[in-house]
Each structure stands twice: as C-alpha cells, then as structure tokens.
C-alpha cells in the first residue's frame, strides 16, 4: 500500500473572485517575470487559465499563493474583472509560505533563493539553520525580488546546505566570515564551491587552523584566478570542484609554515 496522507483539511471553496480583492504577499512570493505575464496575455483563454489558489484573509480580501503571473495577466486584460479561484482557510502567514513551497517545490521555475525565503517565512528548519549561520558570519542571502549583489550576500543555498550537513555550523560560519573579510569588494566572494572547500578545511583542522591567517593569505589573491586554476587542476587530476579548491587553499595557507600545517582531510 502506498503512503497516503489522510489529514486533508477542509474542502476548499470555489468562486469567481474580483481582481481588486486579490493581492500578492511579497514576503515569500518570487518576483514577477514580465515576459511570462506577456506570454499569458498573448495566449489568454479561460480554458488555459485554470484557477488561482487563494487564502482568505481575516482583514478581508485574499492573497494568492499559486498563480501570481496569471493574476497579473488578468489584471492587465481589458475584459476581465474576476477570476476563478480555489479558496482555502489558513491560520497564519507561515502556512501560506508552506503551501507555496508545497505547490512549487518540484517546479524548475522556482529558484533556490526563492525556496529559501519561502522556507524562512514557513519556519523551515533547514532554511532557518542557513539563516542563523549566515547571520553569525555577518552575511545574508540575496533579498527576495532583487539581484543586488554585495560581498556579504550569497545565492548559494544548495552549497551551503550541503556544507552544513558535511562539516557543521561552526566550520561553515568560519568559511563565510573568512570570504567576506578577505574579499570585501568582490560581489561573488560567497561562492558556493569556495564555501564548501573552506568549511572542509576548518572542520578537518579545527585544532590548529587560524582564521586570521587564512584571511591574510587570501586578501592578496584574486578569487576568480584562484578558482580557475583549481578548476584546471581538477580537469587534469579528477575529483570535484570543492576538493580542488581545498587543495589550492591548503597550499596557500601552508606556504612559509614550518609547524601547524593544515591538511585537506576526509570529506564527510
């Protein structure tokens, strides 16, 4: 017998809802893509429109947790004042974010950054863990609805999650803090591969490694050149990108040291 969820909740309400009563909650929704809205408008038919997924709000009106591009297209259409909708009752905003994730989690259209911010709103443990580590390091995820880069911002959610599972919170925190400090003008400093490589070194050499020395050694290096050199070595010798970078970083750190040299160590 397949696993079946029997707690299905209350049946939803079906209705035609006036467009003026529907809004988007920007705290977890992804930014609109104008080209997608234009495509919907160009091919608009009720047969293809389907129904929006809405949540009735206590103060009145509705928020949409699935179908914001169709909603925007309908608002721009001169002949449409209301849209078909499936309306559910939820107790809190975080439940909306949870359902947004549930609807969209397997769609390629949703990015890892969008999953992150929806997860934060929904109280997802994995995303909250990433948030806590980044805050401790003085870093953050790129804000929702913007691509504004900064040396302390990252979109490498998947890589950070893998690093946390493999090397732990302290090592990932140290890695992010090191990158932010070493490359203060590099908007790509918090690169996912670099985070994984550094976290490996911090975890495997926790007794002897100096974060201050690592920062000092990296300040004089160009991150892009370092990454390109490591990738060239990887192609020649095999292995994955984080391993190649870990080898390069180990060599840079150990240069001039007679004692307390670090090693790559094992991958968790």
UniProtKB/TrEMBL annotation:
Pfam families assigned: DUF6551
The name this protein goes by in its record: ParB/Sulfiredoxin domain-containing protein
* Lineage start: Bacteria, Pseudomonadati, Pseudomonadota, Alphaproteobacteria, Hyphomicrobiales
The record lists the organism as: Rhizobium straminoryzae
